[in-house]
Amino acid sequence: xxxxxxxxxxxxxxxxxxxxxxxxxxxxxxxxxxxxxxxxxxxxxxxxxxxxxxxxxxxxxxxxxxxxxxxxxxxxxxxxxxxxxxxxxxxxxxxxxxxxxxx
Length: 103
Known about the structure:
Layout: H1 4-15, H2 17-22, H3 30-36, E1 40-44, E2 47-51, E3 57-62, E4 67-72, E5 77-81, E6 87-93, E7 96-102
């Protein structure tokens, strides 16, 4: 059951991103949440491009919910070559989560 919880949470984030943002309670990190709204994540082949993510952490999860990689985003335009096996992954940067497929 504990392995299914991250999958359920990420599925909810992917299907209802506006609901997830509407239910957030303002905290001291509210400025971080505002800046992560403009984060863009694109996959081109095996290269992941992250825009407007400076200061955030990129986390990559398998579909089973296991964290497979983590990177610190140090610039506003970061490219990361993914050396992962073929498959579907969840990429999370700040409050932005995306599903990507490596072919």
